[in-house]
């Protein structure tokens, strides 16, 4: 919490996106008996895997086990996770009429199971381990709704954005209200910080980000309760960092495609930063992991306000021992 607020801390804290996930045998054990969406809807199990990841990896923060796509399920879009194919949206949004048909949802009610998981996890976590709540950013959520699933080039999303301006703004407004509400509800339930995942926004050029995304993210973030620091994360965003900073966030998440030192310089030292080890480095060996962790800490320069993380989530096939080693070595090398 000190690092998120750019206060001096006695060491550089570390947590990992997807720290509760398929690389972990204990998670796979839980998943062998339960489907992914079923797991997300079970607050007890969500809390259990959230706390399990902290205890096993000795990271400095927990992130609630959930998924950014669950609010889309509340919108009636027919969300399914298909083995090997990832998420599928059976009723994608492709026209103004589709946007107009989206229901107004009460997040407190339709996502109550997430809030229950937050409350339970907060109760079960050690007191000194902060709990991070999260949501997808409007653009990344819109991309799933419009594409109908994951995408490489985001053709449908961009075409919609370029040709259906009014429908795009309506959709982004609708999603940003949901995101703000859902994050505020998680804060009320006990989340001490929140992260906004704009995972795919790096597919946009600067002028598109300014025109189609920035105002919506700015509104989303400005509506979040001030007591919880906001981490604003994206990937492939080296060219967008100044704009993301402008959109808001106390902490900007950075991926490995830019050196942390130049990222922080672009963002400005009046914001904290989170990142930015390439998740694939965890497929190498201890010497390499140590060298790369050291390099990132050196680039942070001992400045207050660096939270160590990967530049994106832990990959499913990552060797478990290497993940544990990363946390150990960041703690050792990051002592002030
Ligand atoms: O970080 C954490 O430990 C918290 C849990 C978390 C999950 N998803 C659990 C999950 C978080 C923060 C997310 C966010 C999320 N979900 C994002 C943004 C982060 C990112 O990775 O960019 C996105 C894009 C999603 C949507 C999503 N959920 C995808 C694309 C997939 C992969 C599908 C696949 O088959 O690989 C998921 C599934 C998912 N979400 C898993 C986990 C642990 C794996 C599902 C499983 O157990 O099989």
Strands of the widest sheet, in order across it, are: 1-4-5-6-7-8-9
Bound molecules: coproporphyrinogen III
As a percent range, the share of strand residues is 5-15%
Principal-axes geometry comes out as globular
The SSE string, one letter per element, is: HHHEHEEHHHEHHHEHEHEHEHEH
Number of E-state strands: 9
Biggest beta-sheet profile: 7 strands, parallel
Arithmetic mean pLDDT? 98
The CA-CA distance between the termini, in Å, is 16 Å
Please provide a written account of the structure.
It is a single chain. This protein has 336 residues and is α/β, with parallel strands linked by helices. The protein has 15 helices and 9 strands. Strand 2 and strand 3 (86-89) form a beta hairpin. Helix 8 (138-147) crosses helix 9, helix 11 runs parallel beside helix 12 and helix 14 (286-300) runs parallel beside helix 15 (320-333). The two termini are 16 Å apart. The structure holds coproporphyrinogen III.
Secondary structure layout plus pairing:
Layout: H1 25-33, H2 36-40, H3 43-57, E1 62-63, H4 70-74, E2 79-82, E3 86-89, H5 96-101, H6 107-110, H7 112-124, E4 131-136, H8 138-147, H9 155-163, H10 165-189, E5 193-198, H11 206-222, E6 230-234, H12 241-247, E7 251-253, H13 260-267, E8 272-277, H14 286-300, E9 306-310, H15 320-333
Parallel strand pairs: 1-4, 4-5, 5-6, 6-7, 7-8, 8-9
Antiparallel strand pairs: 2-3
The structure holds coproporphyrinogen III (CP3).
Coproporphyrinogen III binds next to strand 3.
